[in-house]
Design goal:
The chain has ten helices and 17 strands. With 362 residues, it is an alpha/beta fold. The chain is globular and about 65 Å long. The two termini are 20 Å apart. Pathway: Amino-acid biosynthesis; L-lysine biosynthesis via DAP pathway; (S)-tetrahydrodipicolinate from L-aspartate: step 4/4.
């Protein structure tokens, strides 16, 4: 079956006094070495203040160690199978894209049945995609309603998963709502206000979330709780934000925007146009530390806070390589929605927070 290397995202909390130049460069000046933790090989990054750092005589330089663990595990067993009674068919629209293919692989690994039909663009119509040991036929825009209605009639317990393109968001949601098929949508963009109105008015089961990574969603939720309970806790602190994504991502990270909103509630003055976006592959490898094999699919975020007198700093970091975290979260969202349908729960729009609160995820 082969093996998949999973890199646990490095996380560090740093307390140090430093100058502005050193704050900006500390993240990039790493001394890496290997160590064994719990019997598994880890990469450790030692981050030290530069020689130009101004340090008061009564303080010593502080070094931060960040661990990144690589775990080898069989691809076939990377996600546990669901009980047979919970298995159901899924239709993955956007299956020609990398995210769609990752979701099909995740669905097959979880024991779900992937329907051999998918919706795509006009240029993709007629294609046959082989993924997860399945052949999926791609239909273009014409005749979608009759195809979907027929498929739903034959598979009344099916769930549609949408990872198409931003331009198709509203039309696809309108189609799913009209036919009445439950769906999970991770596609971003489109008219979001219209999207939610369309689905709410139709009273169809749906999970809609621009972020499907469960752990990332949990981190943002924790930040929101902190912001609500301790408003102004970081008043006066300065903030630096860096985010790195594959070069094809032209817009600013939505996750970074959500986290910044929390910092703003915590008393930090910061504008979104201050975010440092890294899209150049050379910088991503040499400065950010993105593995070359993940240049076409990664999400690295760093948030660095410094006190007004430069004596205290905090650093939050979450790095994602590949798409497995989003694919697994999407399948969990589909399982969550299938349970809601079977239990005849309220028909409304759920999100990944609802999925997390339900617990019992794989």
């Amino acid at each position: 079956m082969g093996f998949s290397v999973l890199k646990a995202p490095p996380t560090s909390l740093l307390f140090a006094g430093s100058t502005n130049d050193q704050q900006q460069n500390r993240f990039f000046s790493n001394l890496r070495f290997s160590q064994s933790i719990g019997g598994r090989l880890c990469n450790l990054s030692l981050i030290k203040p530069s020689s130009s750092t101004s340090i008061a005589s009564n303080r010593k330089p502080i070094a931060t160690i960040t661990a990144t663990q690589q775990i080898e595990k069989p691809i076939a067993s990377s996600m546990s199978s669901v009980p047979e009674k919970l298995a159901f068919p899924i239709m993955v629209n956007g299956c020609t894209g990398k995210m769609g293919k990752a979701i099909i692989d995740a669905g097959v690994s979880a024991g779900l049945y992937v329907l051999p039909i998918s919706f795509g663009s006009e240029s993709e119509a007629g294609q046959i995609v082989e993924v997860g040991g399945k052949e999926v036929h791609v239909h273009g825009p014409s005749g979608r309603e009759s195809v979907l209605a027929s498929l739903f009639e034959e598979n009344p317990d099916m769930i549609v998963i949408d990872f198409t393109v931003p331009a198709a968001v509203n039309a696809n949601a309108e189609l799913y709502s009209k036919v009445g098929v439950p769906f999970v949508m991770g596609t971003t963009g489109g008219d979001r206000e219209l999207l939610y109105k369309t689905v709410e008015d139709s009273k169809v089961y749906a999970v809609i979330s621009p972020q499907m990574g469960k752990q990332v969603v949990a981190f943002i939720a924790a930040m929101e709780i902190m912001a609500e309970q301790f408003p102004g806790a970081f008043s006066g602190y300065s903030l630096q934000v860096m985010e790195s994504h594959q070069a094809s991502k032209l817009d600013t990270s939505g996750t970074a925007k959500d986290v910044i909103k929390c910092f703003q509630k915590l008393g930090i003055s910061y504008e979104l146009d201050q975010i440092q976006q890294i899209r150049d592959p050379k910088q991503q490898v040499e400065m950010v530390g993105v593995p070359e094999e993940h240049l076409l699919g990664h999400a690295f975020h760093m948030y660095h806070l410094t006190s007004p007198d430069q004596t205290v700093s905090f650093e939050f970091q979450h790095n994602v390589c590949g798409r497995s975290i989003y694919a697994e979260g999407t399948i969990d969202a589909a399982l969550f929605l299938a349970k809601k349908v079977r239990s005849k729960a309220d028909k409304h729009i759920y999100n990944m927070i609802d999925v997390l609160r339900e617990g019992n995820m794989r």
